[in-house]
Amino acid sequence: MPGNRGSRELLEDYLEGLPLAPEGGELAVAMRYVLQSGGKRVRPLLCLATGKAAGAEPSELLPAAAAIELVHTFSLVHDDLPALDDDALRRGRPSAHVEFGEAVAILTGDALLAEAFRLACLYDAPEVARELAEATSAMIGGQYLDVTSSQGGVLALNRLKTGRLFSASIGCALWVARIPEARQSPWRALAEEIGLLFQLVDDIMDGDGYVVEAGEEEARRLADEAAARARARLADLPVDTTELAEIVEGLPTRAS
Amino acid sequence: MPGNRGSRELLEDYLEGLPLAPEGGELAVAMRYVLQSGGKRVRPLLCLATGKAAGAEPSELLPAAAAIELVHTFSLVHDDLPALDDDALRRGRPSAHVEFGEAVAILTGDALLAEAFRLACLYDAPEVARELAEATSAMIGGQYLDVTSSQGGVLALNRLKTGRLFSASIGCALWVARIPEARQSPWRALAEEIGLLFQLVDDIMDGDGYVVEAGEEEARRLADEAAARARARLADLPVDTTELAEIVEGLPTRAS
Fold first, then answer.
1. Which of A86, A114, A185, B127 has the CB geometry, 3.0–4.6 Å to B136, for a possible disulfide?
2. How far is A197 from chain B (nearest CA, A)?
3. 3-state SS of chain B?
4. What ipTM was estimated for this complex?
């Protein structure tokens, strides 16, 4: 994503400068460890690219973009816990509970979520935090359905577990850019396709999820269709979508 | 607290009517289980009593009051987990991880926190959710310091673990009642005393915390002083503080 290098640097600087758990002593060490674990930052970059295309300044967008990355990171830390997915590694490094112990990992996730909402509430427009809260709630609901295998196919589950936070990445950017709700639907339709595409690519690369349910060929077919629809949605937006298009074109080759 | 019976009923009805994790299937069952575990609702009742004294309608205050109770309940669910305090019982019933398993208990806490922020963001004034986010972050920091025994005496720890959410119970009510920041300090000074008093009473009843550090007699002495200062603060407020006074007078006889 060469065109996003500026956004990426802005984002990393902003994340590094966050006063994480200022009253929690060394808790910030664990929070920084998981935040700096080499993720591709797809969600916050999508937020920044959307907001810029919709007319907002990057500096205005950074709290929302960072909040979304913190919610995503919170979910990884808790999903990795022994009681949930029991993953000892995350992107090649010891996961939080292996590095810091289970108690600190639980609190690290909690603190990331609280910090995410602190950031989302920096805006005077309450819609940013509302959108984030609803997406977070849906994501946790999806994780519950996954853990308890209580209902739903893979695509419905992915829509909750991944899709809603992707939608919020775009939705929060639109609120920051003061795009009224009545003009948001083409953007939200794009978000839907990007979230679907991202998760299908992820499943194809990991050989799990929808690939197990329907086979790799079918997963690739759906991914190609989602990518085509995303491109069509992009072409319909009456703004400069270069940076957004780079994110979409970057997805079919890797996930994070 | 007979004078608060109206507030208590309003609050219970509101909590019962919350659409908890609407997309999380049975996750709402676990959320309701921990929310209906017989707590005394001191924090949300303090929020309602403060807001009413400051001129707000109870109906306006309910989302903030409920949000505070949800944050408190989230903290209990996660604190009870085996990796943290490992408490099998909570108010005489199996704690969440015993009743539903550890994975569901973790997600239940997470979902309560997300729902708390959804409620706090229902207000157009972003200060309500900001205050809640900062208090939540401090509370989690306090729990980290407690778990890792890394620093601080009992009183400093209590101030983070308990005091900050008590302060937010009053602070959020002030924002809902549109009391400008410049006029909030007498109320916030009251909140400080109530939080201190609550935790000292709790330590005295449980024979832990500050009682272990300084002895029961010293704890009682500090509690009496805090109660006296709280009464003086109440007397100084130029509004009807009957309901608030009932909460303060109820504290030295029980905690929740």
1. A114
2. 22
3. CHHHHHHHHHHHHHHHHCCCCCCCCCHHHHHHHHHCCCCCCHHHHHHHHHHHHCCCCHHHHHHHHHHHHHHHHHHHHHHCCCCCCCCCEECCEECHHHHHCHHHHHHHHHHHHHHHHHHHCCCCCCHHHHHHHHHHHHHHHHHHHHHHCCCCCHHHHHHHHHHHHHHHHHHHHHHHCCCCHHHCHHHHHHHHHHHHHHHHHHHHHHCCCHHHHHCHHHHHHHHHHHHHHHHHHHHHCCCCCHHHHHHHHHHHHCCC
4. 0.94
